[in-house]
């Protein structure tokens, strides 16, 4: 059998623990037999990040800027315990944070839906993709405790020494205060990533803020989105037959709960933090949540939404077989291969990516599952298998499809 050929390599970012084990299994069992895989390999394991003073992470992100499409394995973000465990030189920053800063991107998360696993919100029939703005607001704020009566003001100083001052509150006793910001540039980049993703996915884009209460801050988000849409994306949306819809955040939450899904929901930073956890848990399992970082100039980095599944890894190290769910990591590979195929005009590769997703969903629907899905899937004769056997079932489904 001849394997599918590629043109441009993917940027391959390897990672840690159980996901690193699954990474190789996915390539060996599901991809290599069918595709003559081309990648540029970057080892982002904690060991190698430490050895290269984290230069490897920066290099991989820069290469993604050049080649356009990356696929990333989950990686350990070190904490005090990992410092000991890996005898690190430094407590290296989160690789995802580093990559996001270099690509200036927005993260899109969508659940993989299968028949037999009903979302807790029973009207949801299609996935809802959350696009979370990953910069500013309460995540980059300055906070203060006020110990007694005081006047609080916002003060802005320009380079020429001019100041702008606004009264916040006259405190008659103790209290708390918070100052936060965002930039027009970051909001516009966020808007462009969202419009671009919606066009790719051929899905409507919903966006909401609290502009009735926050008449300057949130209103700026609304205005920038409207402006970018009108000047750059309206015609493309018309061509794709999709809509941009803006409303208030409380209204959108009510609408989401009554919708059948199938749209992209752009959220300000805090809203996205909260709502992506809601969507993930309503759809069942973190192991079924995909994630892609999209930069405003159209670079893509695909990954799973979950971490390195440490508990399963220690089991694996003890020689026990584990039933870790590879779906989200597998979909990171198919997402990256499909995007690469579209950019390079490789229809066979694009069909392969679609087929892998279809067959892996059918595998679960046929009752062959990993342990995490056992409590979720309703099926008369389910069979819980280990990760290798689950991937082998997908590969055998692929062979049957020819
Ligand atoms: P996690 O790796 O997502 O795992 C949390 C728990 O969720 C697991 O113990 C497991 O539950 C379940 N789970 C997650 N993915 C699963 C899968 N594919 N199949 C089956 N079960 C799955 O999160 P964590 O334990 O908080 O973090 C572990 C490490 O991952 C940390 O070092 C963290 O820094 C890193 N992390 C990396 C990323 C990233 O690279 N994007 C994201 C998050 C965390 P049971 O144990 O009950 O089976
Ligand atoms: Mg959260």
Keywords:
402 residues, alpha/beta, Isopropylmalate Dehydrogenase, two-stranded antiparallel ribbon, 44% helix, 20% strand, globular, binds magnesium ion
Helix content: 40-55%
> How do the strands line up in the largest sheet?
2-1-3-14-13-4-5-12-10-11
Q: Characterize the biggest β-sheet.
A: 10 strands, mixed
CATH superfamily of the largest domain: Isopropylmalate Dehydrogenase
Q: State the order of secondary-structure elements, H for helix, E for strand.
A: EHEHHEHHEEEEEEHEHEHEHEEHHHEEH
CATH class of the largest domain: Alpha Beta
Number of domains: 3
Sheet-strand content, in percent, reads: 15-25%
Low-confidence stretches: none
Cofactors, ions, other ligands: NADP nicotinamide-adenine-dinucleotide phosphate, magnesium ion
Give the topology.
Blueprint: E1 10-14, H1 17-31, E2 39-43, H2 46-51, H3 55-67, E3 69-72, H4 80-86, H5 95-103, E4 106-111, E5 129-132, E6 142-146, E7 150-157, E8 163-171, E9 175-179, H6 184-201, E10 205-209, H7 217-240, E11 244-248, H8 249-258, E12 264-267, H9 269-282, E13 289-294, E14 300-304, H10 310-317, H11 327-344, H12 347-365, E15 368-369, E16 383-384, H13 387-401
Parallel strand pairs: 1-2, 1-3, 3-14, 5-12, 10-11, 10-12, 15-16
Antiparallel strand pairs: 4-5, 4-13, 6-9, 7-8, 13-14
The chain binds NADP nicotinamide-adenine-dinucleotide phosphate and magnesium ion.
């Amino acid at each position: 059998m001849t394997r599918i050929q590629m043109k441009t390599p993917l940027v391959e970012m390897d990672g840690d623990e159980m996901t690193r084990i699954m990474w190789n299994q996915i390539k060996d069992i599901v991809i290599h037999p069918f595709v003559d895989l081309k990648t540029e390999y970057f080892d982002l394991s904690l060991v190698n990040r430490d050895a290269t003073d984290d230069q490897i992470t920066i290099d991989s992100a820069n290469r993604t800027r050049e080649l356009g499409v990356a696929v990333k394995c989950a990686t350990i973000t070190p904490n005090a315990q990992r410092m000991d465990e890996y005898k690190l030189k430094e407590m290296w920053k989160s690789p995802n944070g580093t990559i996001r800063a270099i690509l200036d991107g927005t993260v899109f998360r969508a659940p993989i839906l299968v028949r037999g696993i009903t979302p807790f919100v029973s009207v949801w029939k299609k996935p809802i993709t959350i696009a979370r703005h990953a910069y500013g607001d309460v995540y980059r704020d300055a906070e203060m405790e006020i110990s007694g009566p005081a006047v609080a003001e916002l003060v802005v100083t320009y380079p020429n020494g001019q100041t702008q001052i606004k009264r916040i509150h006259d405190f008659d006793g103790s209290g708390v205060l918070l100052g936060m910001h965002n930039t027009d540039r970051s909001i516009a980049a966020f808007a462009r990533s969202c419009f671009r993703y919606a066009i790719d996915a051929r899905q409507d884009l919903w966006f909401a803020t609290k502009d009735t209460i926050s008449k300057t801050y949130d209103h700026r988000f609304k205005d920038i989105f409207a402006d970018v849409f009108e000047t750059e994306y309206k015609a493309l949306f018309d061509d794709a037959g999709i809509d941009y819809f803006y409303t208030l955040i409380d209204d959108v939450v009510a609408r989401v709960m009554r919708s059948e899904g199938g749209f992209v929901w752009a959220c300000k930073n805090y809203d996205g933090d909260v709502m992506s956890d809601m969507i993930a848990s309503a759809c069942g399992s973190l192991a079924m949540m995909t994630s892609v970082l999209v930069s405003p100039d159209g670079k893509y980095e695909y990954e799973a939404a979950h971490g390195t599944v440490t508990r399963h890894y220690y089991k694996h190290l003890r020689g026990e077989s584990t039933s870790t769910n590879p779906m989200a990591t597998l979909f990171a590979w198919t997402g990256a291969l499909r995007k690469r195929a579209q950019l390079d005009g490789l229809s066979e590769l694009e069909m392969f990516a679609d087929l892998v997703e279809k067959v892996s969903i059918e595998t679960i629907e046929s009752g062959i599952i990993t342990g995490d899905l056992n409590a979720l899937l309703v099926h008369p004769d389910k069979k819980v298998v280990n990760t290798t056997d689950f991937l082998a079932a997908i590969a055998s489904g692929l062979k049957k499809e020819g």
